[in-house]
């Protein structure tokens, strides 16, 4: 595939990862922080940015690890363990660097980093990228797009939940109940994007 | 077989390599060099950066009160940071009110020493010391309350304000893998500077009370630090109501010793609430105070007097007894000590009787 074709595919994959194939709303990965940290928009955006950052870089790192370490050694079946180790190391490392060199960023982003190590959307993206045999360039778009999609979903959810504070919700549905129903409705809405883009 | 071993080895090696990377990163990235802490514009401490402010101060034998051991869950270790503490953390926010935030009050266990810091702490905390003591007497007061006397060895005396408390160190023992500090009010006469007494109620599976009740013997060494706390008599002449329950007796007893020492003539009424007759203790001591202090009266209140007992004193909840005796207490001051439930209920009753909140002083045991 020539360079322009690959770039075009990257853009398509990026947009489909944000909308039609939103990792949170179509595969329901990364639900725990989605439910736990979506009480207010500020925290949700903070976590969202942290996820975008970590997702982009870990899927790239994992692509390199898979292509140049696991495949040559014929250890593809170890990718689950390997990917988790890489993600955990990366998150720890970033946390340390932020704490040392950018206290402001650490205040806003750093406190969410430990939450992200166990966010299954991160591992999910790395595994999808292997299954779908993305190239390095396309993985850039896929990782970044998945992160943005996740952030979009949690920010929208946080906005809705802030409004819900003043809404009258039937007692039996309060808390997680209504939140899950809203997540379902949001997923339905995102399915509306299907067909807009011809990508995977 | 070889393939399996080899692949396991490779994966382990990669994991170990990444772990090593993190170890080195921690060593070299999180190296903050030497920092300086300036306390009250006066005392300087130089130390290697990277630890929490609370840890750094404790190493220098400056004891900021802390009940949770630096986990950020008790909110006691407040200091005022003038410079260099960085922005307010979300972990501190729940423990600080608006006035404190404006003044720059912070939780010292959450601040990391990354650069030079200037802080202000109450002058009296600088007089907080660590004491090596020997437990010289253990006295059973009731089935679950004991009095402990500690002789101070090094340093050999402690000056404290009646109503203050000390922290006792429970060392590691079988079921408790780490050292913890727990706070207990001093109950003894402040004039006796060479030893202190504490009144302790057993908390089922409590770390420190299990140590004190099941492990500590007379003659054993004990470590404490203190004194701490703002619970103390005011300097007015307003009549006073003392209300205590169980081991809440301790600071009130200490205050009464002090009043007897200075021949205090303030009017004082003490309601001591317990469940049943077998929970009642130190009645003789309190009667002795009634003889020494002309305007002091002591009323034990039994919540549930045993059937057929000859109890002629007050019965019911301690709050009801206070309400009966002081329908109007707007001119009084109140000193409360006991469980949070008892204190909250008493504060409510006193408010209804017209006592302003600023005249109610309490020490919650939780």
Summarize, please.
Chain A is mainly α and 200 residues long.
Give descriptors for this structure.
A: mainly alpha, B: 366 residues, alpha/beta, Ubiquitin-like (UB roll), Elongation Factor Tu (Ef-tu), domain 3, 3 domains, six-stranded parallel beta sheet, 27% helix
List the helices and strands and how they pair.
The complex is a heterodimer of chains A (200) and B (366).
Chain A (H helix, E strand, L loop, with lengths): L2 H16 L4 H5 L3 H6 L4 H30 L8 H23 L1 H6 L4 H5 L2 H12 L4 H29 L11 H16 L9
Helix pairs in contact in A: 1-9, 4-5, 4-8, 4-9, 5-8, 8-9
Chain B lengths: L1 H28 L4 E6 L3 E6 L4 H7 L18 E6 L14 H6 L1 E3 L9 E4 L2 H4 L2 E12 L4 E10 L10 E6 L9 E6 L9 E7 L5 H9 L5 E8 L11 E6 L3 H13 L6 E7 L8 H10 L3 E7 L11 E2 L2 H8 L7 E6 L1 H13 L7 E5 L2
Parallel strand pairs in B: 1-5, 12-13, 12-16, 13-14, 14-15, 16-17
Antiparallel strand pairs in B: 1-2, 3-4, 3-5, 6-7, 6-11, 7-10, 8-9, 8-11
Helix pairs in contact in B: 8-9
Describe what you observe in this structure.
The complex is a heterodimer of chains A (200) and B (366). Helix content of chain A is 74%, strand content 0%. Chain A has helices at residues 3-18, 23-27, 31-36, 41-70, 79-101, 103-108, 113-117, 120-131, 136-164, 176-191. The two termini of chain A are 17 Å apart. Chain B is α/β, with parallel strands linked by helices and 366 residues long. Chain B has a 6-stranded antiparallel sheet. In chain B, strands 15-14-13-12-16-17 form a 6-stranded parallel sheet, sandwiched between helices. The model of chain B has no long low-confidence stretch (mean pLDDT 88). At the A-B interface, helix 5 and helix 6 of A face helix 1 of B.
